[in-house]
Amino acid sequence: MKPDWLDTKEYPFKSKFLELEAGKMHYIDEGQGHPIVMIHGTPSWSFAYRNLIKILSKKYRCVALDLIGFGLSDKPKDWSYKPRAHAANFEQLMAHLGLDNITLLVHDFGAPIGLAYAIKHPEKVQNIVMLNTWTWSLSNHQVFSKASKYLVGPLGKFLHSKLNLTTDQLVHELFGQESKMPEKLKEQYTRALGDPDDTVSSLACARELVGVSKWYDELWKERKKIQDTPTLILWGERDKLVKIEALQRWKKFFHECYVLHFEDSGHFLMEEHADEVSRYVSNFIKEEDKKKEKTLHNS
């Protein structure tokens, strides 16, 4: 049953759930064709991708989940919320759906979760699309010292400084003035975080996501498995959280990488430029499918 606060005109999708040990994970599965799997950041949920799904589901199969603790998924109080646990849940969803040749579309904290899956199952991931995101490394490790100065900190520093805010204040600060989003839409993010009287410190978005872990170290060591994966990066240059240095890092990371800049946009490209983002994603997938067919034909 959908909550009474949900705007079903903005989010007109059929809800599906997967029973996990942590609780019920909510996801939507719209359209047919090449699968595009969308992983949200924090404090967000699949609602952020609603406009992309409305457009892309006309030609593609669009899957968007709510991580446990977010959106319409359960919010257990006794669960770890560690990134490794989120990644394990995502892997279970992918196994449940049995998808192949997927395009992973990640934003914000969705990157380490999606890339963890791609590293473990590179044969199932055909393309990667990234929107203003990063992954963390161990800042005190010599091998990470240069790369991690900006990869470790954006969300961690932000949350540490905002732990005393209410969910409403947090959402307002995250979207700030960079987006012309109406208050009624911001409310969809606020209400999805849980009880509006709770402080951020008691919410999943601020628990276990701050700090460092050997898990990020493990991911980094396995990075070669996905460096040849065709990747499209769409970047809002006015992002207050993830700075342009992170983009430079990603450009060096992937061997086949296409980058498109949005000079007047911030952290939430899918809210500000859904039509353009959808068009770029669709064109990217079409081109990569053509390359794949040509390679198979010549082999």
TrEMBL record:
Residues 35-274 form the AB hydrolase-1 domain. InterPro entries: AB_hydrolase_1, AB_hydrolase_fold, AB_hydrolase_sf, Epox_hydrolase-like. It comes from the Bacteria. Gene3D superfamilies: alpha/beta hydrolase. It comes from Pontibacter lucknowensis. GO terms for cellular component: membrane. This is Haloalkane dehalogenase. One of its GO terms (molecular function) is catalytic activity. It holds the Pfam family Abhydrolase_1.
